[in-house]
Amino acid sequence: MTRLLVIDDHAVVRQGLVQAFTENGFTSIESAGTLSQARAKIAAFNPEAIIVDLNLPDGSGLEIVQWVRKHSTDVAIIVLSLNDPAQFIKIARNSGANAYVSKSQSMQAIIASVRFALSNPGSFTSASIIDQSVEFDLTPREIEVVYLLAEGASNLEISSKLYISLSTVKTHISSLMRKLDCSNRTAAAKIARDKGFLM
After folding, report:
1. Which of 37, 40, 55, 76 has the greatest count of CB atoms below 10 A from its CB?
2. Alpha-carbon span 11 to 7, nearest angstrom
């Protein structure tokens, strides 16, 4: 059971996220609509994962990111926003977030970002970076695979960790090789790191 905190000033967005994560197996979810509510919830609820909007009525979501990072490097923090990615991806990353996800992304992409951050503390991903480069349009699952490749995981280990079949692992690796224009796992990991998909 993962304790998840959703922070957004729009009640409809909060409700939509809570419902989607509940349907995907998350059973301990709290929400907040302001910076002050979020601080109180974090202190009382001690979340393992946080989704936070940049724009809150009483401040910036980045304040939450920085505040949490002062106390923990393990909490998965996803910045979810409509702000211009070109300006805010680097800011989110430098503040200590694990991912920057646009609200225009699918719910599955948001959920995948949270799960990836939970299993890979210290990582940073952004589908918005991917969108800006036709050459490197990696999916969230492919990012998970390349992260494990960078750790030296075998196909069997990747299959076990991501709960996917060996044939699916091979399909993702083949897709990675094609998109990154390389012929081996080491090169794929290096290119992914150089392009900012891995820290």
Report:
1. 76
2. 10
- Whole-number Å distance between alpha carbons of 185 and 176: 9
- Cβ atoms < 10 Å from Cβ of 29: 20
Question: What is the rounded distance in angstroms from the CA atom of residue 148 to the CA atom of residue 157?
Answer: 9
| Secondary element (H or E) of residue 70 | helix 61-71
Residue 86: CB atoms within 10 Å: 10
In the beta sheet, which residues pair with residue 78?
51, 99
Span 29-79, pLDDT tens digits: 999 999 999 999 999 999 999 999 988 888 889 889 999 998 999 999 999
Q: What is the pTM of this model?
A: 0.66
Phi, psi of 61 (to 5 degrees): -60, -20
3-state secondary structure of 53: strand
Mean pLDDT of 94-118: 90
**Unique residue bearing structure tokens 């940073």:** 124
Quick count: other Cβ atoms within 10 Å of Cβ 161?
15
55, 31 contact by CB (below 8 A) = no
Joined together, the tokens standing for residue 95 give 């503040």
Alpha-helical segments (H) within 8-54: 11-23, 35-45
How many whole angstroms separate alpha carbon 197 and alpha carbon 34? 31
